[in-house]
Amino acid sequence: MNAPLELVGHRTKYYKFILLAVFESLSVPTSRLTFVEGSSYQLTKKYNLDNYWLCATVTEHDAKKAGAEVVKQVQVESPLLSGLLYPGLQALDERYLDVDFQLAALTRCVSTNLPCALSVTHL
User: Fold this and answer.
1) Which domain holds residue 22?
2) Short-list 54, 29, 48, CA closest to 122
3) Which pTM value belongs to this model?
4) Which of 20, 61, 88, 109 has a CA 20 to 30 Å removed from the CA of 10?
């Protein structure tokens, strides 16, 4: 894990504070802005079943191709599985959040690939 979960919680609060300050400084209305922590839905049975379904239907080739667009692919003899899982988890997050846009993976617990950051929805 890149950072202890306690630190990740502090970062989440910091990112929310900074993003709100930036939006307000740009006169972007924030009254309809929602911040969602990934753990509020990613630990549910339904999300995990959808992730298992995704893993069972996506080929290694397709996962590598999708991952190359969003994650630096490390060329080692035995790369981590997280680089293959990441694009599918991002797609599931977008589906579950029904987002207008997403600022995700600001902090990601690399050893488990569990998203630990904010997603910004519905401006």
Assistant:
1) 5-121
2) 29
3) 0.68
4) 88
